[in-house]
Amino acid sequence: MEKIISESKIDQVAKLINKYDNVVTICHVSPDGDAVGSSLGLYHFLNALDKSVTVVVPDALPDNLCFLGGAKDILNFSKYPEFATELIDKAELLFCLDFNALSRVGDDLSPLIAKAKAKKVMIDHHLDPENFCDVIISHPEISSTSELVFRLICRMGMFDVLDCLSAAAIYTGMMTDTGNFTYNSNKPDMYFIIEELVRKGIDKDKIYTKVFNTNSVDKIKLNGYATSEKLEVFPEYKTAMITLTREELNRYHYRKGDSEGLVNVPLSIEGIVFSAFFREEKEYIKVSLRSKGNFPANKVASEYFNGGGHMNAAGGEFYGTMEEIIDRFKNLLPMYVQYLQ
Ligand code: 5GP
Ligand code: MN
């Protein structure tokens, strides 16, 4: 396996883990498979080393990740802010997983992380990491943070400590951040890692079914409604857009995660290279963007929607009405024609 993380960073993290017993992991808001996978991957590993570890998430997990071992022990900051604050204050070592900027943990949590006395280690794969950690392991060329966690554990010489629960969490993150190995998935090392995870005893078929193939009637109907009634295509801009208002989401008893993956669907239309999904939340409209090739979804997210992300998968937030965001979106498309060639 190619050595990706530098020797000196491996060394620094190994020393921190050796020195400290009180550990907290934290990930980005609306935790996804990679955020939760990297958190629980590290959690089980550190538990096996007899550390006292708590996985803190800013807000609730989607239902389809709750099957993961250790998910029940995850502390939801939005539900138990006092308890989580106390643990973060007391932590000696803090792992910041799958995010590159303090703002990504939300307004209430970010000042707590900023002022925490703990040594901080970032493990992440988003571009342009902010400088708020003592050790920064940032590799945008690697498709998931979970893969980086695996690499870190191996390079510290502790592959033997990695158990099946940790392996399952890591696999989940690798799988979700590559759309079940359909994008960012051409590096041979990934398949070597998967082999090792399978040897640890994970049931990868079950993980796929639990994460991607477990639907409710409402979820199927919501997605059907979205793609049949709410899909708008702009052929001249090779772009598609789906919008869902609060009222529409309520109609299908929307639960967190029910629209996961919806933004990818229009990219399967021949000729479409850019897809946007706008979902109305309580205080803002959540923006999800996906693209193919050189179309910079992250540029659109940062220039127009207070967000960021990767070239082909980005997101952000918009404070305004659905009419306003649709207007903004239609108006920005002509600015990006140069990327359509
Ligand atoms: P999703 O559409 O799945 O919510 O997000 C896709 C990717 O876009 C994430 O992996 C993350 O890199 C980025 N992203 C999503 N929302 C935000 C946001 O509000 N701010 C920033 N900076 N990036 C985001
Ligand atoms: Mn990720």
Chain-wise SSE layout:
Elements (H helix, E strand, L loop, with lengths): L6 H13 L2 E6 L5 H16 L3 E6 L17 E2 L4 H10 L2 E5 L12 H6 L3 E6 L10 E4 L6 H11 L8 H13 L11 H12 L4 H9 L4 H13 L1 E4 L4 E6 L1 H6 L22 E7 L4 E7 L5 H8 L3 E2 L3 E6 L3 H11 L9
Parallel strand pairs: 1-2, 1-4, 2-3, 4-5, 5-6, 8-9
Antiparallel strand pairs: 7-8, 9-10, 10-12, 11-12
Bound molecules: guanosine-5'-monophosphate and manganese (II) ion (MN).
Q: Which sheet architecture does the biggest sheet show?
A: 6 strands, parallel
Contiguous helical run count: 12
How many domains, as an integer?
2
Widest sheet, order of strands: 3-2-1-4-5-6
The CATH architecture term of the largest domain is Alpha-Beta Complex
- The CATH superfamily of the largest domain turns out to be inorganic pyrophosphatase (n-terminal core)
Q: Given this structure, which CATH class of the largest domain is correct? A: Alpha Beta
Q: Tell me the β content.
A: 15-25%
Helix-residue proportion: 25-40%
CATH topology of the largest domain: inorganic pyrophosphatase (n-terminal core)
Query: Roughly what is the average pLDDT, rounded to an integer?
Result: 97
Assign an overall shape: globular
Order of helices and strands: HEHEEHEHEEHHHHHEEHEEHEEH
Pfam families: DHH, DHHA1
Domain DDH: 23-155
GO molecular function: nucleic acid binding
InterPro entries: DDH_dom, DHH_sf, DHHA1_dom, Oligoribo/pAp-PDE_c-di-AMP_PDE
Q: What would your notes on this structure say?
A:
This protein has 341 residues and is of the alpha/beta class. The protein folds into two domains: 7-212, inorganic pyrophosphatase (n-terminal core); 217-340, Diaminopimelate Epimerase, Chain A, domain 1, CATH 3.10.310.30. The protein is built from twelve helices and twelve strands. The longest helix has 16 residues, at 33-48. Bound molecules: guanosine-5'-monophosphate (5GP) and manganese (II) ion. Manganese (II) ion binds at residues 34, 98, 125, 144-145, 177. Guanosine-5'-monophosphate binds next to strand 11 and strand 12. GO terms for molecular function: nucleic acid binding. Residues 254-331 form the DHHA1 domain.
